[in-house]
Amino acid sequence: MGRRTTTLTVLGACFALASTLTAGAPSAGAAQAGPRAAAPLPPVTPVPQSMSRAGDDVPVTGRVIVVADADTDVPARTRLVAELKGHGADRVDVVTPGNVPRAAAGVLTVRLGPAARPDMAEGLAGTAVPDHAEGYALRVARAGRGAQVVLGGTDGAGQFYAVQTLRQLFVRSPGGGWKVAGAQAGDFPSMPLRGTVEGFYGQPWTHAERLDQMDFYGDVKANTYVYAPKDDPYHRGKWREPYPADKLAELGELVERATANHVRFTFAVSPGESICYSDPADRKALKDKLQALYDLGTRAFSVPLDDIDHSRWNCEADRAAYGEPGTGAAGLAQADLLNDVQRGFVATHEGVWPLQMVPTEYYNHTESAYKRALREELDPAVEVMWTGVGVVPTGITNEDAEQAAKVFGRKVFVWDNYPVNDFGNTGGRLLLAPYDKREAGLSDHLSGVVANPMNQPYASKVAVFGTADFAWNDRAYDAGRNWRAAMSYLAGGDAKATGALLVFGDLEHMAPTFGDTPWQPQAPELARRVARFWTAWDEGDRTGAVRALRAYATAVEDAPATIRSGAVERGFAVDAAPWLDATELWGTATVRMLDALAARQAGDREASDRLLAESGELQRRARAMRTDPPRNAWGAVRPKVGDGVLDAFLTQAELRLRLWDSTGGARNLAPEGTASASSVEQDLDRLAARYVNDGRPDTRWASGYADDAWVQIELAEPTKVAAVTVAWESACATEYAVQTSVDGTTWRTGSTQRPESCGNDVVRLPADEAVRYVRVQGVERRTTWGYSIYELGVYGTPAS
Predict the structure, then answer these.
(1) Would 370 be classed as within a structural domain?
(2) 378, 330 in Cβ contact below 8 A?
(3) Helix 207-219 to helix 461-472 angle, to the nearest 10 degrees?
(4) Contact predicate 433/520, CB 8 Å
(5) Number of alpha helices (DSSP H) and beta strands (DSSP E) in the chain
(6) Which residues is 153 bridged to in the sheet?
(7) Helix axis angle, 327-344 relative to 280-294, nearest 10°?
């Protein structure tokens, strides 16, 4: 796929139904004050270190003069000419500084090159040039009878990034033409290393997808791509073997594309599963593998030693060289190998960046014999990668990074496992939440951040867009602002498509960890609207409640078609296809359910029942969908869409309808009660009884392994119970009873159930006396496990 040259200047005009995801205030680092306060500058991503208005906007004329010389970066010049032609210039003439034609006085002139070039320094007119690698200064202003744009870089990458900022400063003129916002900027990256590591398990990206990624990284000023796909056999299992000729040719083309976007193609070889650290033959094989890529133009290399057993040797020679197997000895062996690569390969090859490595203990910052060995023996030039505290951390703080620097003896380079979706808890998920929970100021403690993306490359752009922004200017980073900018980028600046992406992204907002608690919640915007719906409904404004939520449900229903209509990058729609199909079904199911509630409120029972049945069928179809063929290691599974929020609303709404006559659509009384149980599986607190009535569909109670286990709710006050709902996990009952009690001692069985499958059961009760206790009493388990219930609901009329 080619470059997208659409200017993204429509963030403030996003689809109205998504506009409640309100923008944060502009950061101090990107203050955009100036002489024309009424005409704010367009948003720029990554957020510049300093940007302000220098004067009026200047028009893009039909003819544009580009002033460049031999020191002008070629990729920057190429992109500049393309952007000018894409924004109104019919003719672009490239001339040297001493050969600007006299006729250029009335046309737009753009000067591109080293900031120290005399004509550049004059044109910048005092705009500060940062003293940083990859930095640039930019100024747009009137110049005599014409106008001038000056793009001065501290190096070639700085020039390229100046053009990337200019790309975002094109704005439409009232007459339909283009102009350039009158801005000045001094900008540079806060972190030296920024980008991605293709380090996931499962189907690697295709060659075409990787080429597209290189163009994307150029757009977002990311300068690092680490080639480390776990399922590339020549990266890991067959690391000693050379790549076949066709694969080597692809890698060569990828190196060229990366270089054209100022991206360091970083070639990784992961030999840890089988290497004999002390064996000269293995060391030669490793260096030969690196040499083959060096010959293709690669100038950055990594040796990951992650996800291996570092308590044993792969050969007896290592026992003789480093001692008995153990983590400390493994640290010595790894340092010895890596020092040889750094000193015997990297330092002897012109233009190669310092070696990168991934330690076996990459997931914490506690002191250990392994880390001590690396700290004391590893060459200080070697970059050490680290994921944070945990393989998938809930956040990364300055304190975390500082402690990691202490135990590894250097600033660490973060391998951030977001938005990667190759582990069990991500099954069925696209991870579209913004990059978040990384503390401002980390640039003082890190050498960089690379994101480990999803198997879905185009969908990964949402989070990677944020990673690049954060690593460029962490102190000005705003996750909400960046999320909207990312969606606008994918939508090519189209406001309606941006809004649809925001709605869809909210439904794929869950960010799991390896544990039970996600580090970003599912569907926060929908959850807020659902909560507001039930508040209004229970307070009596049922018409208003339906009207408000139905508008958003329609947006959910329509989002997939909008995303597929052409404005959004096609690759994203392909990546998200199963989730888009499911979203349309869930959205329509929600619209039907709301219409069923409205019909019942209006007294039309027949229409309500019909709409409820239609919603149920749509939900059944949505649940039957599978990600097939799958790209992920978790295989063909149900695509999850707003789970725990959207499905929970539909279940609750269905209950209100089915129990309308007996409870008047009353609320669930269980959360106000106190839960207890006969047992808890292995006495695990995360499976305790209190989770059965906490109102959260993502937590659960699980019993010990006995048929007669039970769980009960002591209600807040005596209640005539009309119905009980049981949301079973996969460890459900073949038979169970729902019992009630006035005193918690004498029990009455109100209903015995033999469900056909594990799911949501609605159990009606007589409601003929006020009771204080409601119990689900197991009779027979369906599995060898105990009973497992996500949530119990109790519906009825309190005696008071």
Answers:
(1) yes
(2) no
(3) 40
(4) yes
(5) 20, 26
(6) 114, 136
(7) 50
Q: Which residues contact 61 (CB under 8 A, 6 or more apart)?
A: 88, 89, 106, 107, 108, 146
If phi over 0 gives left and psi between -120 and 50 gives alpha, with beta otherwise, what is residue 351? left
Alpha-carbon span 763 to 725, nearest angstrom: 6
**How many angstroms from the chain centroid is the CA of residue 189?**
21
Q: What residues contact 644, with CB distance under 8 A and at least 6 apart?
A: 510, 522, 523, 696, 697, 698
Backbone CA torsion sign across 118, 121, 125, 126: negative
Quick check: 446 and 401 in contact, CB under 8 A?
yes
Name which of 619, 686, 626 is nearest 648 in CA terms: 619
Burial of 54 (0-12, 13-18, 19+ CB in 10 A): buried
Total Cβ atoms within 10 A of residue 303: 23
Q: Rounded to an integer, what distance in angstroms lies between the CA atom of residue 529 and that of residue 645?
A: 10
The answer to whether residues 715 and 669 touch, using CB atoms and an 8 Å cutoff, is yes
Q: Are 552 and 623 in a shared domain?
A: yes
Mean pLDDT by 10 residues, the chain (800 residues): 46 42 38 53 98 95 97 98 97 95 86 97 93 98 88 98 98 93 98 97 96 98 97 95 97 98 98 98 98 98 96 96 97 98 98 98 97 98 97 97 98 98 94 98 98 98 98 98 98 97 98 89 97 94 98 98 97 98 98 98 97 95 92 92 92 84 69 97 96 90 98 96 90 97 97 88 87 98 96 88
In this prediction, residue 663 carries a pLDDT of: 55
Q: Which residue segment(s) compose the domain that 613 sits in?
A: 524-658
Partners of 753 in the β-ladder = 736
Q: State the Cα–Cα distance between residues 301 and 364, nearest whole angstrom.
A: 24
The amino acid occupying position 214 is M
Residue entry with tokens 């205030």: 25
- Both 335 and 476 in one domain: the answer is yes
Phi–psi pair at 147, nearest 5 degrees: -145, 160
**Total of domains in the chain:** 4
Q: Are 294 and 435 in a shared domain?
A: yes
Tell which residue, 185, 97, 194, has the closest CA to residue 139. 185
Distance CA 542, CA 551 (A): 14
Q: Helix, strand, or coil here: 678?
A: coil
Same domain, 67 and 160: yes
User: What integer pLDDT is reported at residue 447 of this predicted model?
Assistant: 98
Q: How far apart are CA 124 and CA 135, in angstroms?
A: 14
Measured CA to CA, the distance from residue 482 to residue 484 in angstroms comes to 5
Is it true that the peptide bond before 755 is cis, omega within 30 degrees of 0?
no
Which pLDDT does position 12 carry in this prediction?
43
One-letter amino acid of 674:
T
Which residue in the block uniquely carries the two structure tokens 């023996």? Answer: 377
Burial of 616 (0-12, 13-18, 19+ CB in 10 A): middle
Question: Of 156, 167, 162, which is closest to residue 4 (Cα–Cα)?
Answer: 167
Identify the pLDDT of residue 18: 44
Report the C-alpha gap between 250 and 204 in whole angstroms.
14
Question: CB neighbours of 555 closer than 8 A, spacing ≥ 6?
Answer: 15, 17, 18, 499, 500, 503, 587
Q: What are the start-end ranges of the E strands in 350-491?
A: 356-358, 383-386, 412-416, 446-451
AA identity, residue 698: D
Distance CA 422, CA 527 (A): 26
DSSP 598-621: HHHHTT-HHHHHHHHHHHHHHHHH
Examine the domain organization and report whether 724 and 757 are in the same domain: yes
Task: CATH number of the domain at 141, please.
Answer: 3.30.379.10
Give the model's pLDDT for residue 140.
97
